[in-house]
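We emphasize that the prediction below concerns an isolated chain of 253 residues; any contacts that depend on oligomerization or on bound cofactors are therefore not represented. The input was used exactly as deposited, without trimming of termini.
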Amino acid sequence: MDDSRTISVQPPLWMSVAVLLAVAIGGGFYVYGKKIEVKDVAPTLISVTGEGKANATPDIAELTFGIQIQRQPTAKAAMDQLGKGMTAVFEAVKKAGIEEKDISTAGLSLNPAYDWNEGRQIMRGFDASQSLRVKVRDLDAVSDVLAAATNAGANQAGGVSFIVDEPEKSRAEARQEAITLAQQKAQTLAKQLGMSLGELKSFNEGGGYVPPIMYGRDATAAMAEKSMDVTATPLPAGEQEVNVQVTLTYELR
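Result of the prediction step, given as a token string:
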């Protein structure tokens, strides 16, 4: 009798699976004893900028003017005189075609007035002042409104500024120009690098307006300081420049 036997020993299933598993060691993987390097491949990105400009014609003017009352014996006397003067100015401005909703108070003050005598401060009365901010929607009437206020008693003029009431149309034109320039830059740069433009990854926008045209007190005070009737003086509005800068970031392929 042949008692020889053949015994087959097979490893457990889990051992086979374990051999196939890659073990991460030292920045790579080992599979059957061979190390395979794994590298992160980040996309190549470029950022380009473009600037666009557009001109906007102001359609609203803001005037600031008022009355200053100097040295009255009592606070009540100063405020009474100020009230009468400002009422006259207010009515004159409305008569010039300005709606009440476009007239607001820009400032109001009542302060004691002092003199110095032999090193001592002596109160001599009270000063009072009030100013209005007036929005003029008809630019042809700006000078007439200012002259009407001055003739009614306004003796302080803070300035005139011209603004664009709805600037988004001009900003959209400037933005489109900026985007077009930035896209052209991106295409040129990609070509020089021997690549092509991929997806747009980000967009940023900045910029704004050149400060509104303003005529300071020096330009309007002469009208307010005359005692005779004041005639309208030309106050051209001109144009304002809108600047928009954009930054586009693209992936290169």
